[in-house]
Amino acid sequence: MSVPMAPGLEADPDLAYADLVDLALPAQVVVKAEVRKAVRLKPEEAPGLPAGRARLYIEARTQALLIGDNIGESIRFLADVPLDARGKPPKLSKAQVLVLARAVPERPGELQLVAPDAMLALTPAREATLRAILTETTRPDAPPAITALREALHVSGNLAGEGETQLFLGTATGAPVSISVLRRPGQPTTWGVSFTEIVDSAARPPLPSTLAWYRLACGLPARLPDRANISATLADRRIAAEDYGQVLADLGPCARKRAAP
Question: Is 130 exposed, middle or buried (0-12, 13-18, 19+ CB in 10 A)?
Fold first, then answer.
């Protein structure tokens, strides 16, 4: 498996697929909008502002509501933007943007961004990827966040080189998630993930640039915890750790490009 990347995001210098999921998950409102007014706040009006950035008061016209309740034709919010080499914020008048935010109670049209940098310049690739992410995250059966690797068990088969490793994961919702890794003599090791109560040996790895990939690649620990490896023998424990390493290698890294907020 190649390192996952959503189509069209390969050349994006600022955002990877995981960055967009990070922003989309906490968002109650996602808006495609056109900036009509941008006013830079004074330093005393922008506490906690990182160096090299400006905090702007933005007024924008709603063009499309990707998720959320009707927010009207205009929106208002604060956003942090990078300064150029001259220490100036970008000119944003009539700029097309994507806004990921929460609605402010009892203040129609006023939004609070999910992160200071959650006003994104609109590109076709970003919009398409974000729409796909939102379609997945709003489904009732959306893959849940991984919170722990609870148990790993390898059982050897009757033939030399044959066996199966089962990994059982803890999740934020309590929903079951398991990974099965199969070894067959003379064949490549294969694995798959199941997001149901059924441990399915015919399951497949998640496709790149999907929520299932994000949950595993960004949620699994970097190594198999010793306490979770309940295989019966030392040899089986070693194989379980090797199989877990294979899963991580096939998933690839959870690459991000955004600076940590």
Answer: buried
